[in-house]
Each structure stands twice: as structure tokens, then as C-alpha cells.
Amino acid sequence: MKLSLAKIRLWVIIVALMLLSGGIGWRIGKNSLVRFPQDKTVRADLTLFWQVWDKLEENYLLKSKLQPQEMVWGAIKGMTQALDDPYTVFLPPADNQDSKDDLNGSFSGVGIELGYKEKTLAVIAPLSGTPAETAGIKAGDYILHIKDESKQVDQETTDLSLPQAVRLIRGPQGTTVELTILREGIKEPQVIKLTRETIVIKSVEVRWLDGNIALLKLSQFGGRTAGEWDEAVKEITARAAVKGIILDLRNNPGGYLEGAIKYASEFLPAGKLIVKQAGKDGKIQTYTASAGGRLTTQNLVVLINAGSASSSEILAGALRDNQRAKLVGQKSFGKGTIQEALDLSENAGLHITTASWLTPNGTWVNDTHGLPPDVEIADDKAVAKGVELLKI
Question: Are 142 and 106 in contact (CB under 8 A)?
Fold first, then answer.
């Protein structure tokens, strides 16, 4: 049988895996690999995989399309997609770099944080001051179609993974992309044309209302957040007679779990429960506030909306359940799982859902479709309501 260079390379990888896999048995046939994991009831026979590979090499019309590396990546993507979990994804090198750029806070695009609602690609949040916000895109909007003539893209979003959608929507500064948006309460989809810009996300900002109320805006939990947070907190604690703090988590799509724990600890006494994490073995791990919080005595209100997701929901839920603050605004997004980001060989990456999380009172936001606010009010009135509550 004729072996392509790509297949030879794959077999080398397979043999290496065999040598490295303690507790996992393998059997090689003429054209197959059968894997026996520690769970002896599970086996994977790759005979069919190789049959398809061979038939494509032998018969496919457009030989230039037979890119071995892309085919291997596609097969791995299919493996993760078979789990039916949109947040467990394989990231080829370019997609993996895009994901890191997101958390580092600088990239070229339109300023949309993407996720899924009812397995449909959706806007978690438009980022402040970006083309998406300017064009009127809102948290919760469904994205049905992506069109970019310069990249020859004209594609429905059904079955697109998050990295694929990000790659299609992003592009060089000054180029355009058209998104077909469906919004709840509006019958017909609308097409919105966006011009890409260099997006630099400022994670933390503070401004003052009525002289002595701090509006502390936390936009994301990323690589640049810690330094900006420290500067903002120093400004607040240096000011005399602070009446209270409005912690604004609206349109904060989340990020690192460690960030949610760190910033919750700023507002809670040491030892207070922040979040419960349930892993694949069903065991519950708890995270509590560390000592040294600098904002534990000020009156506090937290703003949330449909763009508050993941780590921002952990933070909001911890402050609510510990009776530290009231939640004001609209129901949050409802993403109650935790992903681990792994770097693989060849600069590829893998995001794996490793746990679900619960608020201190045991709420799983996937079940409740988000955290409900204590005071429900429209976005444009939320800050004023926060000021009112702090003055009571």
C-alpha cells in the first residue's frame, strides 16, 4: 500500500504515543490502529479513518485541496465537535494565537465576544467603543451568516466552531465584513456591515459620580487586567469619604477563573466562599476569599446584563450570595462551565471543558439561564439606579 509522507508522519506519532502511554494498550493491524484505554469497555478502531484517507488520495478530483496537515487538523476538530460541547475545541496554530490575543487585549476585528445560545452562534457582548457597539449590535444577538468578499467568505454559521467564527469575522484593519443578525423580538434578520479596526481592550476603568461614588468598570479577565485593577483600586482607596462603589460587569464576557477569585477576594472577608467547582469525578472543590481585600467595607452595587458571562457571573454570584451586594440590571448570559486552555505541539491548542461551577448557594447558571438581577432595569438606567441605591 502506498503511504503518503503525511501518513508516515502520523504513524511515527502513533508509535510515539504507544511508547509514552502507560496503562493504555494498542494493537496495530495492516491498516488500522485499535486503542484500548484504561476503561476496557472503550475502543477506537481507525480502520475506517485510513480507508477514507486512501480513497481521498486516490480519487478526489481537486488534488490541490488535499492538504495533509489541514486534513489532520480537520479530523481532530471533528473529534472535539462530536462531544457536542461548543466550548471544547481544537485550535490550529493561527486560531490558538487569536485566542491568546483576545486575553492579551489587542487584535484586529469588529469587537464582538462570541458564544452560543441554544447551540446557535451569538453575541455574548459587544466591546465598548468598537465598531460592533457603534453599529448597534447587542448582547444576545444571534449571528446567522458571515460574508466577506475580500476573503471569499459567504457562509452560514450552522456548525461553525468558535475559533472558525472568530477567524471569519476578524481581518485586517480597514476591511469590511457583513453579519446577518437575528434579535429576539424582531421578526426579520438584519444585515450589518462592519469595518474592522485594531481593537485594544482596556480591562479596568474608574470614574467618579456625584463626587464620591466610584463607577468601577471591569470589562474582562485577561492578561492585562491585574495591573489596571491595582491602579484603579489604589485610586479608590486613596480618596477620602467614598460613598460607595458601583462594580460594572455589563458586557464582561469573562476569562480566567483565577481572576474571578482574585477580584471577589477584594470585596469579601477572608474565608468567604466564592465558587464551587464540580469536576468529572463529581467531587466538589471550593474556592474562598483570600486575606487582604482592599474594598471590603465600602457599600457596593453590581451591574450585570446579558453580556455578563462566565467569570463575571462567578464574581457577581459570589457577591450576591454573600449578601455583599445587590445585582442591578438584566439577567446574565448563563455560562456555567470552566475550560482549561492547553498548548499542544506545533503551536496548536486545545480548550477542554473540565468542570462546571456553582455559586456559593449552589446555583448553576446553565440551569437558570443566567443570574437574575435583584433590581431589573434597562441598561441605560442601570448606573443611575446604582447611584440611587448607594445613597439610600
Answer: no
